[in-house]
Amino acid sequence: MNKSDFPKYVANFISKHLPFERGLSINSIRAYRDTLVLLIKFLTEERNIREAKIEIKHLTKELILAFLEWIQEFRKCSNSTRNSRLAAIKSFIRYVKEEDIQYMHQFQQISSIRVKKTVSTITPYLTIDGLRLLLEQPDLTSERGRRDLVLLSLLYDSGARVQEIIDLTPSMLRIDKPYTIQLLGKGNKMRLVPLMSEQIENLKKYLKEQKLLESHTNHYPVFFSSRKQKLTRAGVNYIIRKYAQKAMKTNPELIPKKLTAHSLRHSKAMHLLQAGVNIVYIRDILGHVSITTTERYARVDSKFKREALQKAYLDINKTEDALWEKDYSLINWLNKF
Questions:
Q1: Are 222 and 181 in contact (CB under 8 A)?
Q2: Would you call the peptide bond into 178 cis, given omega within 30 degrees of 0 as the criterion?
Q3: What integer is the mean pLDDT of 43-71?
Q4: DSSP one-letter string for 10-29
Q5: How far apart are CA 239 and CA 128, in angstroms?
Q6: What does the alpha-carbon distance between residue 181 and residue 223 come to, in Å, rounded to a whole number?
Q7: Which of helix, strand or coil describes residue 180?
Q8: What does the pLDDT read at residue 119?
Q9: Tens digits of per-residue pLDDT, 186-230?
């Protein structure tokens, strides 16, 4: 009896093709994994195909379209998320086609599925006064409050992505002049970002308090929970929301209603742009591959200026045994990866 070919392709795609052939980071790989987990869930729950019986031949254009409709209707996914799931599936079926030419027709059919239009949203950002108010919120008499102040200020000062801060270790910090931070970004690309001297004083005190200046702690996470575990994305965004809510009680006009780690990165970019920093330097600080990505900030800034002018005008006139075979359940294997 022939075994299903689907688990083999999934396992090799996730554990070999994406990390070694395409060089993707673990977070990018998890995004592909999550899509495949959802697809398996759809096949088993909605199409009544047992996990062990799933085959590549089941992945027709019609089935993928039904899957995309399902995640939007029942899981309430946005067009943007739907398009990301579709891109992951196309990438997977392209890999399968390269491994076995018999799936060329399926690849062509699935590749013809179009993305849906998305509405561009503007990521909220803090003004300098808003940032100052946010950083005043942590309680510096507590150990957690001191950690949170360093976390918030370092997120802003470095313009780091949330995962880059989560993965930060003491060995990636230079706390002697010239002060710098190494950030491991998308595609496992490392970049060096300068830090301000004002940031360094609080950072040094925090590292000393947490005993992270000792040589054996070089590869410990800089920011960790009470259980000594690396913070999660959800954990970092929870910390930001907590202080944003406190700050809003003082001055709701200075704090956007939805503030995330990405908002602090966005704030840094906007402040650099408004200060007249060359957009090429901003691109390098943020770790963008293309300057086109960075140019969005220039367009956003122009839009806010235009809106401010329009608002002012109106005011005057009135009165954002293969690896896969070791685990019987493919979903269990994917979730452990």
A1: no
A2: yes
A3: 96
A4: HHHIIIIIIIIIS---HHHH
A5: 20
A6: 14
A7: strand
A8: 77
A9: 777 889 999 988 889 999 999 999 999 999 999 999 999 988 899
